[in-house]
Structure prediction request, 563 residues.
Amino acid sequence: MKKQWWHDKVAYQIYPKSFMDANGDGIGDIQGILSKLDYLKDLGIDILWLSPIYQSPFVDQGYDISDYYKIGEEFGTMEEFDRLLEETKKRDMYLVMDLVVNHCSDRHEWFQKALKDPYGPYGDYFYFRKGKDGKAPSNYRSYFGGSTWEPVPGTDLYYLHFFAKEQPDLNWENPKLRREIYKMINWWLDKGLAGFRIDAIINIKKDINFPSYEPDGEDGLVHCTKMVENVEGVDEFLEEMKRETFQKHHSFTVGEVFNMKKGALEEFIGEQGHFSTIFDFSAHELGHGKHGWYDSKPVEFKEWRKTLFASQLEAQGIGFKANIIENHDEARGASRYLPDYARNEKGKKLLATTTLLLRGIPFLYQGQEIGMTNWECPDISLYDDLNTKDQYQEALKAGLTKEEALQVCHDNSRDNARTPMQWSSRENAGFTSGRPWLCVNPNYREINVEEQEGREDSVLAYYKKLISLRKSEEFRETFTYGNFVPAYEDTESVFAYYRVSENGKKVLVAANYGKEPVTLEIQGEPEKILLSNAQRESTLAKEIRNKGTITLESCEGAVLSLR
Ligand code: GLC
Ligand code: CA
Prediction:
């Protein structure tokens, strides 16, 4: 496999609005990020991905962009952004931005012009279609609920939006539009950006006949991904974009790709693939309900392990996946993948051990490194996220009580991850001196950076150890390129694997998610305990020496090198 600069890096997602507010308006900003760069460097982070900071009306929290060339006023100025670029480079870090080009904002100049003249040149930047028999052109349901087709007042036309109606989809069939997008991408890369996280990108290819399908719900609609799954040809767009932009700059790209066709992984992340990597969402999809959040189910350990193993083995020999336990669209990993009895610091370290040493590029999400958890929002009106509001209604429609519907949001809301970063136990978690745009999770008094920085056995301290082990001179090669080999699969409560590299090094990562202790027979010749989430290195080492076994208590994990 040809080596690339990003293969051995550790990435971190910043959700700028909730990261750090420097000017007291309750909204995180670029100055805030600047003030925390040393914190991130110290944690061991190389690549920073910023969720959108472009100009936006924030209907979907910046994923609705009204000017791709402007920094949103809330976040700061272009000069401040340039400084951020400079300061990350000074620290040998790489800055990656969000690329949202399946759609733009309805306030974007292109769309405003298109509305005025749907048959004119800008009309062709979007999908305007005539209705059928007084109804929408087809029966697709958007990601955020309701039809994907919005009527244009005073005409017989509708426009297409896969997400909110304020996020009209861009017409990638139009070469002029594609050129505009490539120009914009290159403009940012020329500035010195290291690459992009690429939003919702699988959706850019449409079946322009917009056929209706068999409804999959009582609303008579079918999820718009049905069409995405049926249409061919997204590869040509992705290849052209890569050729015209990323390839020339040797950029790092990570795709947000759902609904990929079977067997297409190589086209996406192979050596000649469309992207450097794509997120591994296989574990997230496990809990998804058939109809929505209200029928989602808790992730079951054995299924989770099986899924991740399969995903690891699938990528091996093809390329790298980007491994996550959470992001700005998901519940917190610690509240999702850990059984009740493991929802504590030991369990959070266990989860970190398991997931950070997998084969692939680890992405941490802000707050994960201190073990931030889901937010028990006391009232539906306090949520900001449009998806949450829609799913709450769906839950009520399906017959759930208000309390039950709120519980569904507690478990699934995107706002779980969007509450402000918990820096300290001071007011508003030290995030802002003003009024935060979204409630702070009240558990900031116990869970915060300041407290953990002062404590050697904190989750934060453990993340640092883990990252530095992953990147250590001795094991970097093994954790980056080493093969993933499942281990102890017949031990029910254990998530274990080897990383085996060509240079002969072998490491065992073993984690006991069960309630009871387990004893594992060590295969091969043990060398040393590299890490224990329970600070039991010496006890474990002794047992291995004396008996050739390792006994892991409930929620205990260890990393062991073998000869
Ligand atoms: C992606 C983003 C999400 C956004 C959506 C529409 O899934 O991660 O936050 O709402 O795309 O842009
Ligand atoms: Ca601010």
Observations:
- The pocket of calcium ion (ligand 2) is lined by residues 21-23, 25, 27, 29 (CB under 6 Å).
- The chain has a mean pLDDT of 97.
- The chain has 18 helices and 22 strands.
- The CA atoms of residues 237 and 481 lie 30 Å apart.
